[in-house]
Amino acid sequence: IQIRQALIEDFTGIQNCNLHNLPENYQLKYYLYHALTWPQLSFVAIDSSSKRIVGYVLAKIDEDSEKPNTPISGHITSISVMRSYRKLGLAKKLMKLSQYNMKAIYNAAFVSLHVRVGNQAAIALYQKSLSFSVDHVEKKYYADGEDAYSMKLIL
Ligand code: ACO
To answer: Are 5 and 39 in contact (CB under 8 A)?
Structure first.
């Protein structure tokens, strides 16, 4: 499995992976917006034999943090790994690469993300493996009414 920066031509594969793995889906133009605006922050995992995208992290610089006198911060918009490729360390690697470039390229002070309060696998990834902590709860953040943890990691 190869991991590399996401390219424009990867975005239908990323959209496909997202549709398989998460109820939060986006229009292709939102993926392209990420790739065109912050090309160094999104990464893909590709199965070398099938050439299919089996995981991705889609990330950005928080637009609100681009205002003057606000610390620059990164934001993980979405991450997922196809079921049969899970528990191999791919998500952790994808996150680390994005976080590294947030700091190295944009000098981001921290990275934030939202996760469903019931998403135990993702919460373990963020808290145990990557040392994120819960900043606050956002009530009914998701379309179905589930709350989100807003998580943060100082870079
Ligand atoms: N149960 C408990 N802990 C888990 C699980 C699980 N099922 N899966 C991963 N973890 C934790 C462990 O702490 C693991 O560390 P360890 O290997 O030392 O035990 C750590 O996460 C790293 O695991 P990875 O192998 O890197 O994670 P993986 O590649 O399997 O991907 C992911 C994890 C992305 C959460 C995957 O399960 C997935 O795609 N789920 C569906 C989509 C999803 O929930 N995405 C996140 C939504 S929030 C957002 O996008 C901002």
So the answer is: yes
